[in-house]
Amino acid sequence: MTGTQPPIPLDEALDRLLRGIEPLASEHLDTEQAIGRYLGEDLVALRTQPATDLSAMDGYALHADDDRGPWQVVGESAAGHPFRGSFGRGEAIRISTGAHMPEGDMAVLLQENCTRTGEVIALNGEGEPTARHIRRAGYDFSKGQVLLPAGTRIDANQMALALGSGHARLCVHRLPSLAVIDSGDELAPSPEDCPAHRIPATNGAMLEALARAPAGRIERLGPVADTMEALLAALDNAGACDVIVTTGGASVGDHDLVRPALERWGARIDFWRVAMKPGKPLMVGRKGSQVILGLPGNPASAYVTAFLFLLPLLRKLAGCLRPGPQAISLPTALDLAPGHARREFLRATVAEGKVHPVLEQDSAGLLALATATALIDRPPNAPETKAGTYVPVYLLENGGIA
Ligand SMILES: Nc1nc2c(c(=O)[nH]1)N[C@H]1C(S)=C(S)[C@@H](COP(=O)(O)OP(=O)(O)OC[C@H]3O[C@@H](n4cnc5c(N)ncnc54)[C@H](O)[C@@H]3O)O[C@H]1N2
Ligand code: MOO
């Protein structure tokens, strides 16, 4: 490929990046250690829940056809301590929330709907006994039922389901390892030691933080100098990682060496330049099974391209079923000027159900980037868009996927 080809559309670029990417191998982990991993196989219930009918309320269990009272309280079913005997009409069992219902066609009388005198309860006019307060056996899930498909991310709530359905261990995919290489002679490693001709290196740390959830091990290499030797050495050091992401040096300047360095290193460049703003000089290469993403150096360009390309790539390697960010639709709070020929991602905030583009959209602006909590997705050559019109939006929290 050559650099003279026009930028390719974003959807094509994403398709070319993700096509053929297979999830990494799976392994078995203790369920509580599987947080943040993606299921390697469907989660199938090993037990039925609830295993028997349970009371959903504190009160009294009685026969469903015996709803007038009064009743003699002849026993108790507490959570973890079922009532083992039998009882007749005119009798009731004290029952607590989560306790086993006695066998038979039962109803529950809430304790606030009766008056208790010694061992006798009577209706107090506030409500009747009802079977609605019974949680039926298996209403939640049944043994053998597929509960979550392979590729689902295990977060706190999915972990609870896995434990509840009987899984002490889970089959989950390995998380990809990532090397982050930032380059540029102007980059100062320490923000406290930064003369005027330099700027603090921010992209490496930002990309590491952004990728922390879907990546396993992350290696930071850099900032490295704008020389072929320094870039080749960094690429050699990144050799064992599943994914390498570079930032800076991706454009056409005399010191933009990432592409020639990748080619010299033996990588095949799949494509370079995507019709998006920010982020045009995005590059994708491969060496064996390794994928290399070359992101632009401007911080907003690096962030947006990492959000739209790096995170989905890592998620797909980690076994995620739907690795791309999910757009929501929100009304724009301000008029949007006619868009650019490239598909544009406006940094924005969300408040009171509306999306507000931030005023500074320059791709080098750190302050505007730090203000943003969302991206507005503007199609190529978008017409002027009036305030109140619904536009597609990606929320930045959780990589836009939660
Ligand atoms: N003649 C042209 N010039 C440029 C074009 C073009 O098409 N023709 N594209 C522009 C676009 S779009 C972008 S985006 C930038 C991207 O350039 P590079 O990827 O080569 O990035 P650098 O030149 O190395 O840096 C750009 C900017 O970002 C700062 N930077 C870089 N790395 C970091 C870092 N780790 N932490 C903080 N800041 C970083 C760097 O100092 C520069 O200010 O190219 C345009 N030019
Ligand atoms: O399109 Mo570049 O990524 O902003 O400045």
UniProtKB/TrEMBL annotation:
The protein's Enzyme Commission number: 2.10.1.1
Key words, A-Z: Magnesium, Metal-binding, Molybdenum, Molybdenum cofactor biosynthesis, Transferase
One of the record's GO cellular component terms: cytosol
Origin superkingdom: Bacteria
SUPFAM superfamilies, sorted: MoeA C-terminal domain-like (SSF63867), MoeA N-terminal region -like (SSF63882), Molybdenum cofactor biosynthesis proteins (SSF53218)
Organism, scientific name: Qipengyuania oceanensis
Annotated family: Belongs to the MoeA family.
Enzyme class: transferase
Name this polypeptide is given: Molybdopterin molybdenumtransferase
